[in-house]
Write a structure and sequence with these properties.
Layout (H helix, E strand, L loop, with lengths): L1 E5 L7 E2 L11 E5 L5 E7 L13 E5 L5 E7 L4 E8 L2 E12 L2 H4 L9 E5 H12 L5 E5 L4 E5 L7 H12 L1 E6 L2 E6 L4 E5 L10 E6 L5 E19 L6 E3 L10 E6 L11 E4 L5 E4 L2 E6 L7 E5 L3 E2 L3 E11 L4 E8 L8 E10 L2 E8 L2 E8 L5 E10 L8 E2 L10 E2 L7 E10 L12 E8 L5 E16 L2 E5 L3 E6 L5 E4 L10 E4 L3 E4 L10 E17 L1 H7 L9 E8 L5 H15 L3 E9 L15 E6 L4 E16 L4 E9 L9 E2 L29 E5 L3 E5 L9 E5 L13 E5 L3 E5 L4 E9 L10 E6 L3
Parallel strand pairs: 10-13, 14-43, 16-41, 16-53
Antiparallel strand pairs: 1-2, 1-5, 3-4, 3-44, 4-8, 5-6, 6-8, 7-8, 9-11, 12-13, 15-42, 16-40, 17-39, 18-35, 19-22, 20-21, 21-34, 22-34, 23-34, 24-29, 24-34, 24-35, 25-26, 25-34, 26-27, 27-28, 29-32, 30-31, 32-33, 36-37, 36-40, 38-39, 41-46, 42-45, 43-44, 44-45, 47-48, 48-51, 49-50, 49-52, ...
């Protein structure tokens, strides 16, 4: 065994093996998804002994060239006075070194927008390169599964982020010899067999654990539930309208804000393709001075994808045109950046010496147009309102569903209402600053993609400057209004400083700002989602039957509140429950094994946390597959290159690897219908687009948005309870057509709708129609 330390004093790596304290052998401690630790005890036994400094490079290797540890001294060594020697006072120095990722942990994660739809390994690589570009070899970083969304917290270290990402992807990481490794847990397998000639019986300790669970309820976050539409009418005075339900709405958040300071664009925000060299940053503006004349070649793209879920506001910026231009500004693309593939954006075309501004939707130019004027500025804004808040399910893992075969991860279908508007500002006319914006498009994009690329600039030949760009997540509510005899328009919900007309609060209420009071007889519609606690109840019938005996029903139940990966919906909770049951219905084992490095299981040269261990010990009634959780290496015979290994392992029934739980917060689970892993999860469609089409003093005409199947129908109730054929206490009626009329008995009326099929299976979530109209 050889210990070398480079104290960064110009002498390079120096051999400290002869200075090892004979009474305290070096120890390496490796833990799953934690930095490895090296504990050394050195004695100043020569005149040229140099006390290791904090930050010194440390390597502990074997004579055959294999490194057991590489890293850096973490702190100033602690010293102990041993007495007076031949050369004067003698000291022992205790050194703690941490593995290579310490150089990343000493730096702050730069502020950046959440990662969206990125592979776990890709996020690990990106965070490392953000801190130290090119410092680590990342060839051994595997992608694994994609995470729907991951927010990198600057208050956490790189290794804390790597551990959390590994947990969500059921992976393991380590940093050694200047390289990062990130892989699926159990990629390398070792066999611990008591029949092996090198097996050490006294070194093996096994402990069965009684953690059998075959009936589990998983509790998640607050989720969007009922599809609610509230209908009101203005009287020219009222600003405050009470909503029928508490709305599900996430905290408003700025996903990205760019003021174009400095002379280059930040690589943590933008990706640039500029073959003609026409894109630059100066004077607090993004300058575009032409292009190649080709579509999709000169682009400025946001580095992350945009999830088309809930409400989003994309403020593309305050734009000044210096000449006639050709291209697309503020474009959203389902694939490659091209005008024909533009989901929604602003098409800029030349018209004489000026430019023509028009919306492009689904690759087709549509709606009214606006011709620019010399000296004017134009503020472009896109508002998006998706019918679903989350567009992709979380992915959960277990021993039976490792990375690449996780549970969940499906795309959630949704329609998206897109509102594209432009504000024409004439610097010579101060009144233009508060003039209404011009709406170029206000319509629905059916079955929009879950994620898309955002390209601020797609310049065939754009000649303009842009002063700012912001991406905002707004309140997850859509407010629309229509004047008598007029068309319907979208009202901006948000804060007054953002130029909003109203806000949706958790009071719950819709509150208009005084300058935007609804006119007399103006019809108002508020679309949002009600909220509830995400939960799922799941059982394993085979395990229950196997445990059943006289006087015992065989049920072993538990309620778990999962923290990571966060179950955001009941579907996520169901997938988390399935992942739990994959392992919890089997016998659980933990254990330790001690042996010398010469006799490692299966003849391995080394063992790391995250490796798989096939344990075969028939004499102890044990045959199971475990995952190594911790490895402690003691150089007990360093001179002869022998080390003693202590390996701690456990299977996932004893210690889950891909789920973290919350404790200390009580939630009373509802009485849920238990599912099984083989249940039909698709169920009956929700009536996401049910709406009121006409309101009279005695009736409310309704369009459910879907036509019931044969022998099925639409059930309508006055409250969101009692669903089924056996309960009529709050029943309004059952209908077999898509459109029908409902009786109106009061000024304020509520109707709840669910679709059911021939087997009397119902929609998971209700549609709620709330009418608050004067007679």
């Amino acid at each position: 065994m050889k210990i070398t330390i480079d104290n960064l004093d110009g002498r390079g790596p120096c051999d400290y093996t002869a200075s090892l304290d004979a009474g305290q052998a070096p120890r390496v401690r490796r833990r799953l998804n934690h930095p490895a630790e090296l504990h050394l005890s050195l004695v100043a036994n020569s005149p040229d002994f140099v006390v290791p400094v904090a930050g010194a490079r440390v390597m502990m290797g074997q004579a055959n060239g294999g490194d057991v540890f590489t890293g850096y001294v973490a702190t100033v060594p602690k010293f102990e006075y041993l007495g007076w020697g031949e050369r004067g006072p003698l000291y022992r120095y205790r050194v703690l070194a941490l593995s290579d990722e310490i150089v990343l942990d000493r730096k702050t994660i730069p502020p950046r927008s959440p990662f969206v739809g990125r592979a776990a390994g890709e996020i690990v690589r990106q965070l490392a390169n953000d801190l130290l570009p090119g410092f680590f070899d990342t060839q051994a970083v595997a992608d694994l599964d994609a995470l729907p969304r991951y927010q990198a917290d600057p208050q956490k270290t790189w290794s804390e982020h790597a551990a959390e990402i590994a947990l969500q992807a059921r992976g393991c990481y380590r940093a050694q010899q200047g390289a990062l490794h990130f892989a699926n847990i159990g990629t390398i397998t070792h066999t611990l067999d008591e029949t092996s000639a090198t097996f050490s019986p006294e070194g093996l300790k096994l402990q069965p654990v009684d953690r059998l669970v075959n009936d589990v309820t998983v509790v998640g976050r607050m989720e969007p539930r009922t599809y609610v539409k509230d209908y009101f009418v203005g009287d020219g005075l009222t600003l405050h309208f009470n909503l029928s339900q508490m709305p599900f709405t996430r905290r408003s958040q700025t996903l990205m804000e760019e003021e174009y300071k400095g002379t280059v664009l930040s690589a943590t925000r933008w990706s640039i393709s500029d073959p003609a060299g026409v894109v630059s940053v100066s004077g607090g503006k993004l300058q575009v001075a032409g292009g190649t004349g080709m579509d999709g070649q000169t682009t400025v793209r946001f580095v992350e994808q945009i999830e088309l879920g809930g409400a989003l506001i994309l403020q593309h910026g305050d734009v000044s045109f210096s000449a006639a231009s050709d291209g697309v500004l503020g474009g959203l693309y389902a694939g490659n950046v091209s005008t024909s593939g533009c989901l929604a954006g602003f098409r800029i075309t030349k018209t004489g010496g000026q430019s023509n501004l028009q919306a492009v939707i689904g690759g087709v130019v549509t709606g009214p147009s606006l011709t620019t004027q010399a000296g004017h500025r134009y503020v472009f804004t896109t508002r998006l309102y998706a019918s679903e808040v989350y567009r992709r399910e979380q992915t959960f893992h277990s021993s039976a569903h490792p990375a690449g075969n996780g549970l969940g991860g499906a795309t959630v279908k949704a329609d998206v209402r897109a509102v594209l508007e432009v504000h024409d500002i004439d610097p010579a006319n101060p009144g233009s600053l508060i003039a209404p914006t011009m709406v170029l498009y206000d319509g629905v994009v059916a079955e929009a993609p879950d994620y898309c690329t955002y390209a601020l600039v797609n310049a065939a030949e754009l000649r303009c400057s842009i002063t700012f760009t912001r991406l905002l997540r707004a309140a997850d509510a859509l407010v629309r209004s229509a004047l008598p005899g007029g068309g319907t328009r979208t009202r901006l919900a948000g804060s007054l400083v953002e130029g909003a007309e109203c806000r949706v609060s958790e009071e719950p209420a819709l509150q208009f700002f005084p300058q935007h009071v609804p006119a007399a007889n103006e019809e108002l519609t508020v679309r949002y989602r009600g909220l509830g606690r995400a939960m799922a109840h799941m059982t394993d019938p085979e395990s229950i039957a196997a445990q059943r005996h006289t006087g015992e029903d065989g049920i072993r139940s538990a309620v778990q509140r999962v923290a990571v990966p966060a179950p955001r919906t009941s579907v996520d909770c169901g997938n988390a429950a399935r992942a739990l049951l994959d392992d919890s219905v089997h016998a659980a084992w933990t254990g330790e094994y001690e042996t010398w490095s010469d006799f490692l299981p299966g003849g391995a040269q080394d063992i790391f946390p995250g490796d798989s261990l096939e344990v075969h010990a028939p004499s102890r009634g044990a045959a199971f597959r475990a995952i190594v959780r911790e490895v402690e290496i003691e150089a007990a015979d360093a001179g002869e290159d022998h080390t003693r290994y202590k390996i701690r392992f456990a299977d996932e029934a004893a210690e889950p690897l891909a789920l973290a739980f919350e404790t200390g917060r009580g939630v009373n689970p509802l009485e849920l219908t238990p599912l099984t892993p083989t249940s039909d999860w698709n169920g009956v469609a929700d009536l996401c687009f049910a709406e009121v089409t006409q309101i009279t003093s005695t009736s409310v005409s309704t369009d459910a948005g879907l036509t019931p199947e044969t022998s099925g129908g639409i059930e309508v109730r006055r409250s969101d309870v009692g669903w089924g054929p056996d309960n009529d206490r709050n029943l309004v009626g059952r209908f077999t057509t898509r459109s029908f009329s409902l009786p109106r008995l009061a000024r304020v009326q509520d109707y709840f709708l669910r679709l059911y099929d021939a087997a009397w299976r119902y929609s998971k979530n209700s549609a709620a129609l709330h009418v608050d109209y004067p007679f």
